[in-house]
What we know:
Elements (H helix, E strand, L loop, with lengths): L1 H9 L10 H4 L23 H12 L14 H15 L8 E2 L4 E2 L5 H11 L2
Antiparallel strand pairs: 1-2
Amino acid sequence: RTAIRIKLLEKLNHHGNRCCAWHETRQELHEYSAREAPTGIMNCGCTFEEALFEESLSKSGVGSMVTGAKRLNPALRNALLLVFQRAYGYTDGDLAFNRVSSEWLDGESPAYWSEKENFYEL
């Protein structure tokens, strides 16, 4: 599941960049030039793990402290990710899996992501 989600993030945008959702919507200079980010890092400087966490938070209804905004500031997002990892052993998918019922949320199961991978022919 996580590997497929990373493959989707690895796709370049129309400018030849990979950016987290937060940086994608802003007109800021990127940390790395187009197609020059190191492995595991996006052009904006965020890691794939941070971008996946941001997406998971958004799907869980956790957004900005600014009314109407849907994305969490990277500094706050990254600190929250570290807290989740240290305190709860968080890994990608934990927010999409109901441990009580042992079921995935709609559109989050490994089977769903496998179908999506085949659809996009990664």
